[in-house]
Amino acid sequence: MSTKLNPKNGLFRICVDKKEDGRLSGRIVSQRLTAPMAFADLGDLLLKVEGVLDAQNFPQASQRIRTFVQDASEYPASVLPDGAMSEAEVEASRGARTTFQLAILTRRNATWQGAVDWMEGQSPMSFSSDLELLSLVDRHMEEL
To answer: Which domain of life is it from (predicted)?
Structure first.
């Protein structure tokens, strides 16, 4: 039986391993993935997370990408993939520089809305766009 995605099992844990020349790199871990996904910079992080959101259709985008090609999986089921990482695997993952949890609650106006939890004693912060999320991450990394 497939497990439906929900805001708790739909979280992304971002493990930042390196900061070099102002560029962050690391891994994305989640129960939504079957293995950790590497990212080379923040732009790559956004694109990879967006790819997962689109592939799993959760949360649903308020705007759909238009195409001339018929796609059989236009609206995939919002379920965890077979062989998904366990909650324990995700909880055990830590970045060498920092780790934060990303909860994307909605996707409206072609951007994300959600919250980021720094997991280092600081209170979670809400964001209403990708750009605001990037600004929060930059500010957090400067404080370290």
So the answer is: Bacteria
Q: Provide φ and ψ at 108, rounded to 5°.
A: -120, 155
Question: Where does the chain show beta strands of DSSP type E?
Answer: 12-20, 23-29, 37-39, 98-108, 111-117, 125-127
Checking if the pLDDT of 24 tops 80, the result is yes
Tokens (6 digits) for 93: 């993952």
Domain that holds residue 93: 12-63+77-143
pLDDT of residue 80: 75
Please indicate, yes or no, if residue 35 is contained in any of the structural domains: yes
Residue 41 within a domain: yes
| Contact assessment for residue 109 and residue 103, using Cβ atoms and an 8 Å cutoff | no
pTM score: 0.86
